Amino acid sequence: KGLLALALCAGLTAQAAEPFVGTYRDGSVDSVYKLMLLDKHRYCFFLMAGSLDLITGGTWQAKRKGNISTIRLKETRLDLPALMLVVNFNLSDSDWQAKIGKQRALLFSPYELDRGLKTSQIYYAFGSGNTSPKKDDYTCSQEADSEFAHIVIPDNAQYVFIRTGPDQPVYRFHIGNSQRALLVLNEQAHRQPADFTLAYNHKTRILTDTQRAEEWGQPEKAAPVVQSTAWRQCQPKAPKTVRRVNGGERSVVIPDIFPDK
Fold this sequence. Notes:
The protein is mainly beta. Helices cover about 15% and strands about 40% of the residues. The chain has helices at about 1-15, 95-100, 110-115, 225-235, and strands at about 20-25, 30-40, 40-50, 50-65, 70-75, 85, 105-110, 125, 140, 150, 160-165, 170-175, 180-185, 195-200, 205-210, 215, 240, 250-255, 255-260. The chain has an 8-stranded antiparallel beta sheet, covered by helices on one side. Strands 10-7-13-6-18-17 form a 6-stranded mixed beta sheet. The longest helix is centred in the N-terminal third of the chain and has 15 residues, at about 1-15. The protein is elongated and about 70 Å long. It starts with a helix and ends with a strand.
Protein backbone atom coordinates (compact mmCIF):
# COMPACT_ATOMS: atom_id res chain seq x y z
CA LYS A 1 0.00 0.00 0.00
CA GLY A 2 2.85 2.35 0.81
CA LEU A 3 4.44 1.82 -2.61
CA LEU A 4 1.09 2.33 -4.33
CA ALA A 5 0.54 5.60 -2.49
CA LEU A 6 4.00 6.80 -3.47
CA ALA A 7 3.34 5.90 -7.10
CA LEU A 8 0.04 7.76 -7.07
CA CYS A 9 1.66 10.82 -5.52
CA ALA A 10 4.43 10.72 -8.08
CA GLY A 11 1.84 10.60 -10.86
CA LEU A 12 -0.03 13.56 -9.42
CA THR A 13 3.20 15.51 -9.05
CA ALA A 14 4.15 14.84 -12.67
CA GLN A 15 0.71 15.95 -13.81
CA ALA A 16 0.89 19.13 -11.71
CA ALA A 17 4.32 19.90 -13.20
CA GLU A 18 2.77 20.34 -16.66
CA PRO A 19 0.54 23.41 -16.30
CA PHE A 20 1.15 24.39 -19.91
CA VAL A 21 -0.89 21.43 -21.20
CA GLY A 22 -3.95 22.84 -22.92
CA THR A 23 -5.23 24.67 -25.99
CA TYR A 24 -3.78 27.91 -27.40
CA ARG A 25 -5.20 30.05 -30.19
CA ASP A 26 -3.76 32.74 -32.42
CA GLY A 27 -4.51 34.28 -35.78
CA SER A 28 -5.47 37.26 -37.86
CA VAL A 29 -8.06 38.24 -40.44
CA ASP A 30 -6.51 35.83 -42.97
CA SER A 31 -5.36 32.97 -40.78
CA VAL A 32 -6.30 30.89 -37.75
CA TYR A 33 -3.81 28.92 -35.65
CA LYS A 34 -4.53 26.41 -32.91
CA LEU A 35 -1.92 24.64 -30.84
CA MET A 36 -2.77 21.89 -28.39
CA LEU A 37 -0.16 20.71 -25.95
CA LEU A 38 -1.44 17.34 -24.84
CA ASP A 39 -0.51 14.96 -22.07
CA LYS A 40 1.85 12.04 -22.76
CA HIS A 41 4.24 14.49 -24.49
CA ARG A 42 2.05 14.90 -27.60
CA TYR A 43 0.93 18.00 -29.48
CA CYS A 44 -1.44 18.96 -32.29
CA PHE A 45 -1.09 21.93 -34.62
CA PHE A 46 -3.90 23.29 -36.80
CA LEU A 47 -3.55 26.05 -39.39
CA MET A 48 -6.20 27.53 -41.67
CA ALA A 49 -4.93 30.26 -44.01
CA GLY A 50 -6.86 30.83 -47.23
CA SER A 51 -6.51 27.74 -49.40
CA LEU A 52 -3.95 26.21 -47.00
CA ASP A 53 -5.17 23.81 -44.33
CA LEU A 54 -2.63 22.03 -42.18
CA ILE A 55 -3.32 19.47 -39.48
CA THR A 56 -0.36 17.69 -37.97
CA GLY A 57 1.15 16.57 -34.70
CA GLY A 58 4.16 15.20 -32.93
CA THR A 59 5.90 15.11 -29.57
CA TRP A 60 7.19 17.68 -27.09
CA GLN A 61 9.97 17.77 -24.52
CA ALA A 62 10.16 20.36 -21.74
CA LYS A 63 12.98 21.57 -19.52
CA ARG A 64 12.35 23.98 -16.67
CA LYS A 65 14.81 26.54 -15.37
CA GLY A 66 13.46 28.86 -12.72
CA ASN A 67 10.05 30.16 -13.77
CA ILE A 68 10.54 29.34 -17.45
CA SER A 69 9.93 26.01 -19.15
CA THR A 70 11.48 25.65 -22.60
CA ILE A 71 9.28 23.34 -24.66
CA ARG A 72 10.57 21.86 -27.91
CA LEU A 73 8.02 20.47 -30.35
CA LYS A 74 9.04 17.98 -33.05
CA GLU A 75 6.61 16.97 -35.78
CA THR A 76 6.23 13.28 -36.56
CA ARG A 77 7.56 12.89 -40.12
CA LEU A 78 6.37 10.00 -42.26
CA ASP A 79 8.83 7.97 -44.29
CA LEU A 80 6.96 8.44 -47.57
CA PRO A 81 7.97 9.67 -51.03
CA ALA A 82 6.97 13.11 -52.28
CA LEU A 83 4.45 11.61 -54.75
CA MET A 84 2.18 8.56 -54.58
CA LEU A 85 -0.61 7.01 -56.64
CA VAL A 86 -3.99 5.71 -55.54
CA VAL A 87 -5.37 3.06 -57.89
CA ASN A 88 -8.61 1.09 -58.22
CA PHE A 89 -10.73 3.65 -56.38
CA ASN A 90 -14.35 4.61 -56.95
CA LEU A 91 -14.67 7.74 -59.05
CA SER A 92 -17.62 9.54 -57.47
CA ASP A 93 -16.94 13.06 -58.76
CA SER A 94 -19.36 13.73 -61.61
CA ASP A 95 -17.12 16.35 -63.28
CA TRP A 96 -14.24 13.92 -63.62
CA GLN A 97 -16.57 11.10 -64.63
CA ALA A 98 -18.09 13.20 -67.40
CA LYS A 99 -14.66 14.06 -68.83
CA ILE A 100 -13.18 10.58 -68.63
CA GLY A 101 -16.00 8.24 -69.52
CA LYS A 102 -14.65 4.69 -69.81
CA GLN A 103 -11.08 5.65 -70.65
CA ARG A 104 -8.12 4.60 -68.56
CA ALA A 105 -6.90 7.79 -66.94
CA LEU A 106 -4.24 9.30 -64.73
CA LEU A 107 -6.03 11.88 -62.57
CA PHE A 108 -4.79 14.78 -60.49
CA SER A 109 -6.09 17.95 -58.94
CA PRO A 110 -3.90 21.01 -59.65
CA TYR A 111 -5.57 22.67 -56.67
CA GLU A 112 -4.33 19.92 -54.32
CA LEU A 113 -0.91 19.57 -55.94
CA ASP A 114 -0.38 23.32 -55.68
CA ARG A 115 0.63 22.84 -52.04
CA GLY A 116 3.95 21.53 -53.29
CA LEU A 117 3.98 21.45 -57.08
CA LYS A 118 2.77 23.42 -60.05
CA THR A 119 1.03 21.29 -62.64
CA SER A 120 3.47 22.61 -65.23
CA GLN A 121 6.22 20.82 -63.27
CA ILE A 122 4.70 17.40 -63.98
CA TYR A 123 6.33 15.48 -66.82
CA TYR A 124 4.86 12.08 -67.56
CA ALA A 125 5.34 9.01 -69.74
CA PHE A 126 3.85 5.53 -69.90
CA GLY A 127 5.36 2.13 -70.59
CA SER A 128 4.37 -1.50 -70.99
CA GLY A 129 7.67 -2.43 -69.31
CA ASN A 130 9.64 -1.08 -66.38
CA THR A 131 12.42 0.56 -68.42
CA SER A 132 12.46 4.32 -67.94
CA PRO A 133 11.71 6.25 -71.14
CA LYS A 134 14.19 8.65 -72.67
CA LYS A 135 13.98 12.31 -71.65
CA ASP A 136 12.44 13.28 -75.00
CA ASP A 137 9.59 10.82 -74.43
CA TYR A 138 8.18 12.76 -71.47
CA THR A 139 5.29 15.17 -71.93
CA CYS A 140 4.73 18.24 -69.77
CA SER A 141 1.21 18.59 -68.36
CA GLN A 142 -0.52 21.71 -69.62
CA GLU A 143 -3.67 21.72 -67.45
CA ALA A 144 -2.34 24.19 -64.90
CA ASP A 145 -5.61 26.11 -64.48
CA SER A 146 -7.96 23.16 -64.21
CA GLU A 147 -9.43 21.90 -60.94
CA PHE A 148 -9.90 18.45 -62.44
CA ALA A 149 -7.13 17.25 -64.75
CA HIS A 150 -6.67 13.90 -66.42
CA ILE A 151 -4.33 12.20 -68.87
CA VAL A 152 -5.43 9.19 -70.92
CA ILE A 153 -3.45 6.04 -70.11
CA PRO A 154 -2.65 3.87 -73.14
CA ASP A 155 -4.30 0.44 -73.12
CA ASN A 156 -1.01 -1.44 -72.93
CA ALA A 157 0.56 0.69 -70.18
CA GLN A 158 1.65 -1.11 -67.02
CA TYR A 159 3.80 1.73 -65.63
CA VAL A 160 3.53 5.48 -65.16
CA PHE A 161 6.74 7.53 -65.07
CA ILE A 162 6.64 10.96 -63.44
CA ARG A 163 9.26 13.69 -63.20
CA THR A 164 8.80 17.05 -61.49
CA GLY A 165 11.08 18.81 -63.95
CA PRO A 166 13.19 17.96 -67.00
CA ASP A 167 16.28 17.18 -64.89
CA GLN A 168 14.59 15.72 -61.80
CA PRO A 169 14.57 12.09 -60.60
CA VAL A 170 12.17 9.60 -62.15
CA TYR A 171 9.23 8.26 -60.14
CA ARG A 172 8.28 4.88 -61.60
CA PHE A 173 4.83 3.63 -60.54
CA HIS A 174 3.49 0.18 -61.31
CA ILE A 175 -0.21 0.43 -62.19
CA GLY A 176 -0.83 -2.98 -63.76
CA ASN A 177 -4.22 -3.01 -65.45
CA SER A 178 -5.74 -0.34 -63.21
CA GLN A 179 -8.45 1.71 -64.89
CA ARG A 180 -7.85 4.79 -62.75
CA ALA A 181 -4.76 6.22 -61.05
CA LEU A 182 -4.84 9.34 -58.88
CA LEU A 183 -1.60 11.28 -58.34
CA VAL A 184 -1.41 12.54 -54.76
CA LEU A 185 1.07 14.70 -52.90
CA ASN A 186 2.84 13.94 -49.65
CA GLU A 187 2.57 17.51 -48.41
CA GLN A 188 5.08 16.87 -45.60
CA ALA A 189 7.82 16.43 -48.18
CA HIS A 190 7.16 19.88 -49.67
CA ARG A 191 7.26 22.04 -46.55
CA GLN A 192 9.35 22.72 -43.49
CA PRO A 193 8.62 20.58 -40.41
CA ALA A 194 6.09 22.00 -37.95
CA ASP A 195 8.73 22.16 -35.19
CA PHE A 196 8.57 24.89 -32.57
CA THR A 197 10.53 26.17 -29.61
CA LEU A 198 8.26 27.63 -26.95
CA ALA A 199 8.74 29.26 -23.57
CA TYR A 200 6.16 28.96 -20.79
CA ASN A 201 6.25 31.44 -17.92
CA HIS A 202 4.99 29.72 -14.77
CA LYS A 203 4.20 33.06 -13.07
CA THR A 204 2.18 34.69 -15.85
CA ARG A 205 1.03 31.36 -17.38
CA ILE A 206 1.83 32.81 -20.83
CA LEU A 207 3.26 30.68 -23.63
CA THR A 208 5.56 32.42 -26.12
CA ASP A 209 6.80 31.24 -29.50
CA THR A 210 10.48 32.12 -29.23
CA GLN A 211 11.07 31.85 -32.98
CA ARG A 212 8.30 34.29 -33.92
CA ALA A 213 8.62 36.29 -30.70
CA GLU A 214 4.84 36.16 -30.38
CA GLU A 215 2.62 35.14 -27.49
CA TRP A 216 0.18 32.24 -27.62
CA GLY A 217 -1.38 33.44 -24.38
CA GLN A 218 -2.60 31.33 -21.50
CA PRO A 219 -3.79 27.74 -21.89
CA GLU A 220 -7.41 26.67 -22.09
CA LYS A 221 -7.68 23.40 -20.21
CA ALA A 222 -8.59 20.41 -22.38
CA ALA A 223 -10.39 17.42 -20.90
CA PRO A 224 -8.87 13.96 -21.56
CA VAL A 225 -11.64 13.09 -24.04
CA VAL A 226 -10.95 16.32 -25.96
CA GLN A 227 -7.24 15.51 -26.05
CA SER A 228 -7.88 11.98 -27.30
CA THR A 229 -10.19 13.22 -30.05
CA ALA A 230 -7.68 15.85 -31.15
CA TRP A 231 -4.83 13.33 -31.25
CA ARG A 232 -6.83 10.91 -33.40
CA GLN A 233 -7.41 13.77 -35.82
CA CYS A 234 -3.89 15.19 -35.98
CA GLN A 235 -1.56 12.23 -35.46
CA PRO A 236 0.39 11.70 -38.71
CA LYS A 237 -0.28 8.17 -39.95
CA ALA A 238 1.32 6.40 -42.88
CA PRO A 239 -1.12 4.55 -45.13
CA LYS A 240 -0.57 0.94 -46.08
CA THR A 241 1.36 1.01 -49.34
CA VAL A 242 2.42 -1.35 -52.14
CA ARG A 243 4.98 -1.18 -54.94
CA ARG A 244 3.15 -3.55 -57.28
CA VAL A 245 -0.57 -3.59 -57.97
CA ASN A 246 -2.17 -7.01 -57.60
CA GLY A 247 -5.77 -7.45 -58.68
CA GLY A 248 -8.43 -4.79 -58.48
CA GLU A 249 -8.21 -3.75 -54.83
CA ARG A 250 -7.81 -0.09 -53.92
CA SER A 251 -4.12 0.50 -53.22
CA VAL A 252 -1.72 3.31 -52.41
CA VAL A 253 1.29 2.80 -54.67
CA ILE A 254 4.74 4.12 -53.83
CA PRO A 255 7.31 4.51 -56.58
CA ASP A 256 10.78 3.31 -57.34
CA ILE A 257 12.87 6.47 -57.64
CA PHE A 258 15.80 6.77 -60.00
CA PRO A 259 18.27 9.63 -60.40
CA ASP A 260 18.29 11.80 -63.49
CA LYS A 261 20.27 10.32 -66.40
